[in-house]
């Protein structure tokens, strides 16, 4: 099997229309992301129907741009990888239908990739020689999960959020403070100018479970803001953001430390959109120093939703069993909006 296989990857699980071309197992030749933040910003969150329609408009130009930036043409592509779930079902279907038609029309193998395994693959795109098993903290708008990863395609789920995801809590707190969408980067910016003036409690931080819960801190912030407004005082946005962010990062790092104690990984990594947060990145690096473990923090473009991570996941899954007939079973492949790996 060729080592330098050219893969076209497509990702439309949420509000980014993305396409990428990768070469071999880990090389990224292009990684184009058309974000829909302008479209959803005024609603303070993603409107699924609008996201689907925008994906339909953008998918073709985004794929063309990815091919062009990689210096490739469609006839050079040897494998198609596409996100099949989890995500918004209508949004997933746009990318999946496009990928199926393309692969079928050209007789190419098609790999359906789990979006979370895609986020995990970003770790290997950053460091192909990641010491294994790697403990991955995956924090995004829809997920907060801990996985023990032996390799791409072999992951064990250790724990996850029981209610809101960390990114979702960032987005909701930003909405309460009228900071705009997506909230994470806005809260981070405000937090940098504030202090930890308030106590924002987070459930389950002291318990032995590897699960998370982030609906509590969101509600605590809501009551805090309401209390301040009732007293007719000015809302200290920066201090609230700082206090909230510290609590969330504490919870994420403390559970990661507990997971290290329980599973003895060879390295640790962070992934997903919330892994763009500088405070979390620094604290993860500090945890690496504390535990003596190497830490992989993928570049921010690889943490937030993108298609290169889907390509890297897809090609690695494919190369494990390249002769399997399932890669040509286009009609069998369906969107799976609730799919959790491991
Ligand atoms: O992985 P991602 O791009 O999409 C999902 O799969 O959900 O993650 C998006 C989430 C959003 O909730 C966004 O607010 C959050 O990641 N996020 C951040 C930061 N940048 C993005 N959260 C905290 N700090 C950031 N700098
Ligand atoms: Zn994601």
Strand order of the largest sheet: 3-2-1-4-5
Order of helices and strands: EEEHHEHEHEEEHHHHEHEHH
Which structural class should the secondary elements be placed in?
A: alpha/beta
In terms of DSSP E residues, the strand content is: 15-25%
**How many helix segments?**
11
Which range best describes the helical content: under 10%, 10-25%, 25-40%, 40-55%, 55-70% or over 70%?
40-55%
Q: Give the number of DSSP strands.
A: 10
User: Which radius of gyration do the C-alpha atoms yield?
Assistant: 20 Å
Ligands (ions, cofactors included): 5'-O-[(R)-(carboxyoxy)(hydroxy)phosphoryl]adenosine, zinc ion
User: For the report, how would you describe the main beta sheet?
Assistant: 5 strands, mixed
Report, as a whole number of angstroms, the end-to-end distance.
27 Å
Shape call:
globular
- Detail the poorly predicted runs: none
- The whole-number mean of residue pLDDT values reads 95
Summarize the structure.
The protein is α/β, with parallel strands linked by helices and 342 residues long.
Task: Write structural notes for this entry.
The protein has 342 residues and is of the alpha/beta class. Strand 7 (144-151) and strand 8 (154-160) form a beta hairpin. The model has no long low-confidence stretch (mean pLDDT 95). The two termini are 27 Å apart. It has helices at residues 37-41, 48-70, 89-106, 115-126, 166-176, 183-191, 215-230, 237-263, 278-291, 300-303, 308-320; strands at residues 6-11, 16-23, 27-35, 79-85, 110-114, 134-139, 144-151, 154-160, 267-271, 295-296. Helices cover 44% and strands 18% of the residues. The strands form 2 sheets. The chain has a 5-stranded mixed β-sheet with strand order 3-2-1-4-5, with helices on both faces. Strands 8-7-6-9-10 form a 5-stranded mixed β-sheet, with helices on both faces. Bound molecules: 5'-O-[(R)-(carboxyoxy)(hydroxy)phosphoryl]adenosine and zinc ion. 5'-O-[(R)-(carboxyoxy)(hydroxy)phosphoryl]adenosine is lined by residues 14, 140-142, 167-168, 170-171, 182-185, 188, 272-274, 276-277, 304-305. Residues 14, 140-142, 167-168, 170-171, 182-185, 188, 272-274, 276-277, 304-305 line the site of 5'-O-[(R)-(carboxyoxy)(hydroxy)phosphoryl]adenosine.
